[in-house]
């Protein structure tokens, strides 16, 4: 889908990036699709221009900025693709209004104790200022253990109720990336200082889990190829896992390998798969699965020979 077509479907554009249609985006530090800067991290001691210039030194893509105060807004208006209304000042209505008036897309983080209604009300404040480009970001609630729990059910409800794109704020730990993508996140927010490895882990979840759970409707060659590449990545993971399991079965069966081939079982598994892949249908699936099964049996026999040898 072209950026314009994506935006027509309720996505929010962050520079060249569409959030809400197409693949799940990763926002964070190095290796992410968009960078973000939290000016609150420095308690206003580092000028906005300096922080933006530091990121701009090696990044020309979209940058999101969370201001420390209203004084940062001119710099943000000039140099950012979007503004973050941080969880800590979600209730500062004056600042929210001033941010919305910049006309840039606004990411509204949920304050730790805010309800769904309170959270969505902030989006309404932005709309009242004439800014409808709002992305909601679930940033977690404080728990009795002193930690922060991401509420993926609330994130999902926010998406359904508002029709707006949603982000899951994973902080410094991409371990929940897969769960967030499965729960319908349109983007994953890593901390501004996240590493390339963390971005890689998040992108991997976007590819593998997104390929299975996220419906995409690409309408350009480039985006369709991007989408099919993600499906192939997921297929590769499953094919590798399948080959391992098929190998285990060959070792456990009384007669393994090609000599113990069980065509009845193969027909049954193809028929089962055809229920989930009705468009392909049984005959085409049989051809595909025959190749997959034979590859597994070859690998298993090769390994048995190596082990015996
Ligand atoms: C895995 C098995 O061995 C063979 C390989 C199969 C497969 O890869 O799915 C299926 C049937 C057998 O021909 C099995 O018997 O279950």
From TrEMBL:
Classification via PANTHER family: PHOSPHO-2-DEHYDRO-3-DEOXYHEPTONATE ALDOLASE, PROTEIN AROA(G)
Q: Which UniProt keywords apply?
A: Transferase
SMART domains from the xrefs? CM_2
UniProt name for this protein: Chorismate mutase
Q: Which residues form a coiled coil?
A: none
Domain of life, per UniProt, equals: Bacteria
Give the matching Pfam families.
CM_2, DAHP_synth_1
Originating organism: Streptosporangium subroseum
**The Chorismate mutase domain covers which part of the protein?**
215-304
Could you give a GO molecular-function term held by this entry? transferase activity
PROSITE patterns per the record?
Answer: CHORISMATE_MUT_2
| Keyword Cytoplasm recorded | no
Q: Which GO terms describe its biological process?
A: chorismate metabolic process
Q: Does the keyword Zinc-finger apply?
A: no
